[in-house]
Structure formats: structure tokens, C-alpha cells
Write a structure and sequence with these properties.
With 128 residues, the protein is mostly beta strands. It is 0% helix and 48% strand. The strands form two sheets. Strands 2, 4, 5, 6, 9, 10 and 11 form a seven-stranded mixed beta sheet that branches. A hairpin with a 4-residue loop joins strand 7 and strand 8. The protein starts with a strand and ends with a strand.
Amino acid sequence: QVQLVESGGGLVQAGGSLRLSCAASGRTFTWHAMGWFRQAPGKERDFVAAISRDAVSTDYADSVKGRFTISRDNAKNTVYLQMSSLKPEDTAVYYCARTSQITGWTQIFTTKNRYTDWGQGTQVTVSS
């Protein structure tokens, strides 16, 4: 069973930046596409960004395109989410996730049901 541990959340003013990290245990990190999701109070957990095994393919929710960047370092078993120009509506708990099955090198997935392993989440709060 893989463990995913997020870090890097916190309180930031609107317009600021944060970088989230997600460290994965085990030796199969490079076998899976990865994703970031977020959940605001009283709302569904929504897709934010996804990245393929080879880090070449990425996809983003429309609400974060041009402001967030997902990346991964396979040598460190870590996926990152660089967030810039943050807005109060970005306030949420952010979760990283790993796909349920081994994926093709360039595949990415944007739906929750393709992910079965989740971190505990890290809180991001953006003040206006």
C-alpha cells in the first residue's frame, strides 16, 4: 500500500504563491500517473491538475490554467503543485492522488474514479 504525504499548505494573501509537495512511499511511483484535487467546505472534491508518468503530459482545471503548474521528480518519488496568483476561491484542502492501475507513459486522468490512493490533504487558505 502506497503512502502519499502532502506538505506545503498554509495561509497566503491573494496574489501570493505556494508550492505543494506530495511524497510517495515505495518503488512504484514511476508506474503511475498522478493528480491533485481539492475540496472546499461543503463542496465536492474537484480535479485540479494531472501529470503523466513521463511528466510530459499535463492537464489542468480551467479555473487554475495559467496559474498552477504540476510537475514531478521521479528520482525523488515526489509530485509538486506550484500555485501562483492565488485567489480566495482557491481556498480548500488539497489532496494528491495516484491512479489505481499502472498507466501508459503519456496517459493522464482527470476524474476521481481513476485514482485509488490518496494523501491526507494539506490546507490552503487564501485571504482577500
